[in-house]
């Protein structure tokens, strides 16, 4: 990738989650293989030189952890942190980022549709949206019933995280081009959060 790439990431602590979800199988991770897999923490090592990050979260407490992690990766330049709802990023200009990254956040936002529309708005034409999210099982089964049964308690315990989102469908409806969504079921994830999508799409 070229120098001075503008990234917007939705919350900083992405790395540990993605490592966990894919059982640490870095070599098999499609984004990692292409050299542009992203995230905070350990995944910051995969950002190219001169990566300019804007980190977005509604909760300011992430900044301390993110800053600690970032010190280890001098190729990453944190340009800005924006404390806002992903559904309304009015402080961020249209068409301003090359890459937008979202891990385990669409499960928690109030409106997936609005958050995705905002992500699309802030991406430059041709910009890439990358995500890793847990979703509802794609077919009705005992597992999906279990997800629906566990969802209310899970939501309370995990700060609004929703087990039953169909974020893959929402991404397809947002009007991105070249949408590629892979479904994975990593064995080391709890059964109710096991269906995971890895998505890439272009504005
Ligand atoms: C499950 S955590 C994921 C954190 C991190 N991205 C990761 O992959 O480990 C969900 C994050 O989404 C943030 N969040 C929840 N709702 C949000 C919203 N509407 N807008 C922006 N951030 C939100 C929370 O503050 C929290 O940091």
Automatic annotation (TrEMBL):
Example GO BP: methylation
Residue ranges annotated for the Methyltransferase type domain, each copy included: 39-131
Keyword line: Methyltransferase, Transferase
A molecular function (GO) term: S-adenosylmethionine-dependent methyltransferase activity
InterPro entries xrefs: Methyltransf_11 (IPR013216), SAM-dependent_MTases_sf (IPR029063), Thiol_S-MT (IPR052356)
Pfam family, one: Methyltransf_11
PANTHER family: METHYLTRANSFERASE LIKE 7A (PTHR45036:SF1), METHYLTRANSFERASE LIKE 7B (PTHR45036)
Name the record gives this protein: Methyltransferase-like protein 7A like protein
Lineage: Eukaryota, Metazoa, Ecdysozoa, Arthropoda, Chelicerata
């Amino acid at each position: 990738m070229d120098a001075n790439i503008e990234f917007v990431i939705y919350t900083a602590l992405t790395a540990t989650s993605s490592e966990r979800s894919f059982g640490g199988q870095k070599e098999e991770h499609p984004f990692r293989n292409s050299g542009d897999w992203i995230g905070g923490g350990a995944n910051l090592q995969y950002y190219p030189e001169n990566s300019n990050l804007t980190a977005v979260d509604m909760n300011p407490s992430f900044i301390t952890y993110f800053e600690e992690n970032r010190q280890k990766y001098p190729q990453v330049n944190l340009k800005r942190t924006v404390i806002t709802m992903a559904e309304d990023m009015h402080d961020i200009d249209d068409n301003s980022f090359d890459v937008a990254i979202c891990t385990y956040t669409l499960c928690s936002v109030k409106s997936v549709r609005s958050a995705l529309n905002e992500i699309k708005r802030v991406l430059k034409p041709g910009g890439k949206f990358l995500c890793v999210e847990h979703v509802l099982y794609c077919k009705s089964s005992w597992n999906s019933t279990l997800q629906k049964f566990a969802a209310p308690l899970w939501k309370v315990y995990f700060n609004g995280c929703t087990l039953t989102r169909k974020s893959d469908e929402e991404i397809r409806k947002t009007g991105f081009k070249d949408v590629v969504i892979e479904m994975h079921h990593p064995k080391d994830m709890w059964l109710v959060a096991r269906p995971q999508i890895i998505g890439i799409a272009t504005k």
